Amino acid sequence: MSQKKETNISVDPFSDQDVLKTKAFSWREIHLQMFFLTIPLPLFFIVTGILQFYWCDVSLAIWMIIMGIMIGVELIHVSVFFHRATVQKNETDLEDDDIFDHYEPLKDPIVKRIVRIHSITGLLSYFGGVKCYLILIGNWWCSGMVFWPSLLISLFYWVTMAALVVYTCKSKNRKMII
């Protein structure tokens, strides 16, 4: 006879809501391993944008700083979601097939916020891609430390934005994401 583990749900005393299902999070909810693994990318963008401010197009350097901040915010939210998912997985003792019946990640408010932040960052990436294209066809001199990361991150966000648009165009998922 298998016994099921009781799920301990922490409730916020001020709002009487399940902490795992709210938009707000505390800094203790950040998954540290994931945070330290992913934080070098936004730090690179911010530092490179500051140091290469006058060595390339100034608007591209400002764009790098803004993108670094947006990517950092997005990655912090992703690490909070990862932490909440691992906590929820550890609190429930379910079989492998039962996990899909009880957990719906698209209804999580953190995932909706991540999608919105990713959409804003994706729209900002179009500016960086256009600036890189203008630098390339205009034969302007630009530091490789600015040009190549800007081009690659713009292409990454273009592909993920296309995937997000295709995913949300399905009528089944449209209401859950937006």
Please tally the helical runs, counting DSSP H or I stretches of 4 or more residues. 7
Low-confidence stretches: 5-17
Q: Biggest β-sheet: count, sense, barrel?
A: none
Mean pLDDT, all residues: 77
Shape verdict = globular
> Roughly how many Å apart are the termini?
43 Å
List the helices and strands in order: HHHHHHH
Strand residues, percent: under 5%
Whole-number total of structural domains: 1
DSSP E strands, number: 0
Please state the CA-atom Rg, rounded to the nearest Å: 20 Å
Helix content: 55-70%
What can you tell me about this protein's structure?
The chain has 178 residues and is an all-alpha fold. It has one domain. It has 7 helices and no strands. It is globular, with a radius of gyration of 20 Å. The termini are far apart. About 7% of the residues have low confidence.
